[in-house]
């Protein structure tokens, strides 16, 4: 019988634990932070374009050429002003019209301006001239393009 005791070696302990998980977690955190800083302007622009696209789609969906359609356009313009110009929400009448004129390149006639201001308070089934409705809708489209 051979003596195997000489071939027996001492118990081998594993190496010390190093900060492998914490090290890679911090590296991935900094890589993620770097990517966020690089792509944040792009994401902000995408978010703004999404608002503009949504508002233009809402304007496009207004098809009734009566006072209720003009009232919805007026409401949409007010909602955009809540988002972009919070102080302008309290404006009404001539101050509201001068504010819209100041922030828009296109122009409305006097009757179209009056219709835009008075539409939310008029009977909703009253007819509107097609030219007036189209001009107000084009004015709103221009306002949305310029201000969002």
Q: pLDDT under 50 segments (min length 5)?
A: none
Distance between the termini: 93 Å
- Largest pleated sheet: none
The succession of helices and strands, N to C, reads HHHHH
User: Helical segment tally?
Assistant: 5
Task: Describe the fold and architecture.
The chain contains five helices and no strands. It has 148 residues and is mainly alpha-helical. It has a domain at 65-148. Helix 2 packs across helix 4, helix 2 runs parallel beside helix 5 and helix 4 (110-118) packs across helix 5 (130-147). The longest helix is centred in the N-terminal third of the chain and has 41 residues, at 20-60. It is rod-shaped, with a radius of gyration of 32 Å. The mean pLDDT is 82.
Topology:
Blueprint: H1 20-60, H2 67-84, H3 93-102, H4 110-118, H5 130-147
Helix pairs in contact: 1-5, 2-4, 2-5, 4-5
Task: Give the gist of this structure.
With 148 residues, this protein is mainly alpha-helical. 65% of the residues lie in helices and 0% in strands. The chain has a domain at 65-148.
Features:
mainly alpha, rod-shaped, 148 residues
């Amino acid at each position: 019988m051979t003596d195997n005791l000489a071939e027996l070696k001492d118990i081998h302990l594993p190496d010390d634990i190093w900060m492998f998980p914490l090290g890679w977690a911090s590296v991935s955190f900094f890589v993620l932070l770097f990517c966020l800083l690089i792509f944040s302007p792009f994401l902000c622009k995408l978010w703004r374009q999404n608002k503009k696209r949504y508002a233009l789609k809402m304007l496009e969906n207004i098809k009734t050429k009566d006072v209720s359609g003009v009232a919805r356009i007026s409401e949409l313009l007010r909602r955009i002003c809540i988002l972009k110009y919070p102080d302008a929400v309290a404006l009404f009448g001539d101050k509201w019209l001068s504010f819209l004129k100041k922030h828009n390149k296109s122009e409305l006639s006097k009757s179209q301006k009056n219709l835009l201001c008075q539409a939310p308070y008029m009977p909703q089934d009253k007819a509107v001239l097609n030219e007036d409705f189209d001009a107000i809708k084009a004015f709103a489209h221009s306002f949305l393009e310029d201000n969002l």
